[in-house]
Amino acid sequence: MKKTLIPFFFTSFACIFLLFLLFYSKECISLASNGLLIWYRNMIPSLFPFMVLSGFMVRTGLSLKIGQLLQPILGLFFPLSSQMLYAIFMGFLCGFPMGAKMVADLLEKEQLTLKEGEYLLAFCNNIGPLYMLGYVIPLFEYKDIWKILGFMYLIPISYGILLRYICPSYYSISIHNKKLTSPIKQNYLTSFQYSLSSAIEQITLLGGCMVFFNCLLIFPKLLGNFLSRTMLGSLSVFPVAILSSIIEIGGGLQQLAAFSPKTTSDVLCVFLPLSLLTFGGFSCITQTCFILKNTGLKIRTYIAHKLIQSCIFIILIFIL
Questions:
Q1: How many Cβ atoms from other residues are within 10 Å of residue 267's Cβ?
Q2: How far apart are CA 119 and CA 302, in angstroms?
């Protein structure tokens, strides 16, 4: 039954989406252009250099040396191997989807076990500080920048620390684990060329994914137009903006920013966007799937950890 329903669902959805592309071509082109613009202005400058650099470091063995330098400080909170510390550091510094890419690169070079990769992926694949500072914070006109950044990154860091004590299988991961192989260093020029071509392929996939999922925002947009003519009126804008953010975070946040400051409390304006950013939306999940293909990691486990962290932000809305 399940094997029959899934193809039927996707076939029906594809047909409906095709009709929407034909009958609402102007709106779809506008949405696709917006996705392309966000990718070009925000994702490429903030991600592409880091993608090249991280791949280069892993392939030349520099990642291990950087991880060893991080050991005295970062090792106090995460008593893990140098490779894992490097992945944590780069994942938080460079932002999504660099956390997933770091895990994939280290797994490819057999510098991580699957359990270690699963643990890192649970809290290291977040929206990056450059994206936050260059896009999210100006978009919502946040004043207390350090407060926003603190909440955005302290929660996944704390989650990563606690996860080792909550889950016995993660607690067994330690600095003393023996790696599958020792790092195999490559020629610098060859490593740079391979890292550059790999980064170009991945950033292009991410861009295509953003354009496609921005087109899918036609569904919540038409839903909002319909609901605006009913008794709900302007109240429909808020849930439609949330639905759009769940589909594609960049375009959805633009809708949420246009609505939230005028009609909601400061706490809601802060924590609701952060909870949506933590989850990342279906677009980010799909992009992560692209990066993690052939690694053996389960995307369902990744989604579960993301949902838990998003719920923490939602709980903070009611507490604060």
A1: 13
A2: 9
**Residues near 132 by Cβ (< 8 Å), separated by ≥ 6?**
95, 148, 149, 152
Q: What is the pLDDT of residue 12?
A: 79
Rounded CA separation 105/270 (Å): 34
Mean pLDDT by 10 residues, the chain (320 residues): 65 80 84 85 80 80 81 84 85 80 81 86 84 80 80 87 82 56 63 84 84 86 76 68 83 75 57 80 85 84 88 77
First to last CA, the chain: 46
pLDDT value for 259: 67
Contact 152, 127 (CB under 8 A): yes
* Residue 65: Cβ within 10 Å count: 14
What pLDDT score was predicted for residue 53? 83
Q: Whose CA is closest to 179, among 101, 98, 86?
A: 86
